[in-house]
Amino acid sequence: MRPVYAVSGGVSKFAKARPDKTFQPMVKEAYDYAIADLGLDFPTFTRLVDGSVASYFSDHFLRQLKAGAMVQDYLGLIPKPCHRVEGGGATGGLSFQEGWKSIASGHMDVCVVYGWETMSHVETWKGNEFIALASDVSWDYPVGGFYSGYYAMMVTRHMKEYGTTAEQMAHVSVKNHLNAYHNPYAQKRERYTIADVRNAPMVAWPLTRLDICVMSDGAAVTILASEDGLRKLEQAGARVPRPLVRVTGIGRGTDAMRMADRPHLDYDTFLRDYATEMERASDDTRAYYKRLWDHGTRYPGIHSFRAGRTAGNMAYKHAGIVDPIKDLSFIELHDAYTSSEIQTYEDMGLCRYGEGGPFAASGKAFMPGIDYRLKLPEKPVCPVNPSGGLIACGHPVGATGLMQGVFALWQIQSTIAKHFGDPALQVRDARKGAIHSHAGTGTFVTVSILEREA
Amino acid sequence: MTKLPDQRDESLGGYVVHGVPFPVETDPDALAFLKRMAPIQIEQPYQITYLHSYGQDSPWFAGAANKHLLATQEPDTGYTYATPRGHDMYSGRETNWIDITDRKANVHAFTVCHFGSEEFLPETPYVLALIEFEGVNTLFLTRLMGVDPQAASLDWIGMPVRPRFLRNSKLKPTDVYFVPAAG
């Protein structure tokens, strides 16, 4: 496999609705930004790019099939190769990795991955219905199909097993909304308190409206290149900041579509197949897990995402990461729900299974230098969702995982101040970051590692 | 005193408009002005009826219509699926039908939905629950009745429950629902 570099990116302003444009020029906003940030003009980039990946989730939201072909021609990319990727909420993360494969395999030297979603064309509750069609339409949807309901069931089990509290979840909401206060691309830039989150209208107990991401219209673009592609871009006048940002690891995992079908595995199987290297090597952690299992915990059940753990372990191995919380400078993860951010802390090995709630309220995942007006017992260690995540930025599904890729690129380039017009969210000395994209009730999950080249 | 919400609900279904504003003359200034127009938005109704087959899962629905709760089981290992699967995901073998109507059952997890997809909004608040059964390896998603949705409590997890069946089957998984066993 050849080295793959992330060289540029762009994000449209995420908004509740963008009736001013159809989806093609909305994608072009992000596309033009990415090209301009390279210092190239449209015809030059068009000449150099070898092909593309189109990232969008739902044909229902647009009522338009083959929408990828319409963006491909609007961007002037025909007759270059393109394929559409769809994988629910993980569509963007999967597409990013498909772009990576195109470069790593030698199939392309320069690949542009563009993604978008326009969710405003139907009313919110019809949108929830469309999203719920991404659950089994024989067995899950007809019972009351509603993704917030599915995630709420997961978290009631998490609370029962581990003592996780709604207030711990609310810490995630306060953090992500306040981070987004400094991100001009975010849909919701708000200062909330724990009380605000808990007093918001209840959607699916115990998740309130402020525990849940919103629907959005938006687009994002990342440009990936090989060493040869980089050379071609720079020979044509592109300005790619040094040190370079390389994508050093990718991982993916899957799980049963119906969360009811997920197994409840024993301790030995968990330790053998799913524990992180750190967990397996620690006497203390093995004993901790043994106690959990003695008290009835089984894995993954519905409280944990086996797909996320599998994706994380795979990406970490690929990128040589052993202790994620220390090795990673930041993580942009798929916080469609505050509860799923907590579940993902555990899947990604930032803490042990069962410790996600206290971890959320510890301060370790917060940004330094921002006053959250919370009493946090510990200092930031590895900021999670410094951009504001899905909860505050919005979740235009096909764009979301690519948005994470763009923000991660800017973090590692140390160009957040330039792109956001505000330095507050720049993670100091950001060397290595992870992006995490998640579909369904944890059916497809991707983790990709971006790293500053030495 | 209960306050009204501070925002009215939005809905589609607006006006029929005749006469769309447009410059009387298409001189250069008028044409340039077109880029400053607000977008035109129209409604596009979309309705479709699918002929959906339950395929290999069909006996489950026939069972529920006759007040039997069925599950499927791997013939050798006995691995049992509360939500039926035609083939076992570990051995790849075809499963057999078993009747679990009278098995001991408990709430494994739940939520109270105060909102929902458009189709289910009129039914809110409703309680979704995943049910675990004695001797069964996987769970079953259902509606839980006979509890107070305004008094949600983690204590509901572990509560013994029993199935009840609609008298007039709709041939949907909601033909069965669960209630507290003590009720």
Fraction of helical residues of chain A = 40-55%
- Give the number of DSSP strands of chain B: 8
Biggest sheet strand line-up of chain A: 3-2-4-7-1-8-13-12-11
| 3D shape of chain B | elongated
| Number of helical regions of chain A | 21
Radius of gyration of chain A: 21 Å
Enumerate how many helices of chain B there are, as a single number. Answer: 2
Beta-strand content of chain B: 15-25%
Structural class of chain B: mainly beta
Averaged pLDDT of chain B: 94
How would you sum up this structure, described in words?
The complex is a heterodimer of chains A (454) and B (183). With 454 residues, chain A is α+β, with helices and mostly antiparallel strands. Chain A is built from 21 helices and 13 strands. In chain A, the strands form 3 sheets. In chain A, strands 3-2-4-7-1-8-13-12-11 form a 9-stranded mixed sheet, sandwiched between helices. A two-stranded antiparallel ribbon of chain A has the order 5-6. Chain A has a two-stranded antiparallel ribbon with strand order 9-10. In chain A, helix 9 crosses helix 18. The radius of gyration of chain A is 21 Å and the shape is globular. Chain A starts with a strand and ends with a strand. The mean pLDDT of chain A is 97. With 183 residues, chain B is mainly beta. Chain B is 8% helix and 23% strand. Chain B has a 5-stranded antiparallel sheet with strand order 6-5-4-7-8, with no helix packed on it. A 3-stranded antiparallel sheet of chain B has the order 2-1-3. The two termini of chain B are 34 Å apart. The model of chain B has no long low-confidence stretch (mean pLDDT 94). The chains are: A alpha+beta (454), B mainly beta (183). Chains A and B meet through helix 6, helix 7, helix 8 and strand 5 of A and strand 4, strand 5 and strand 6 of B.
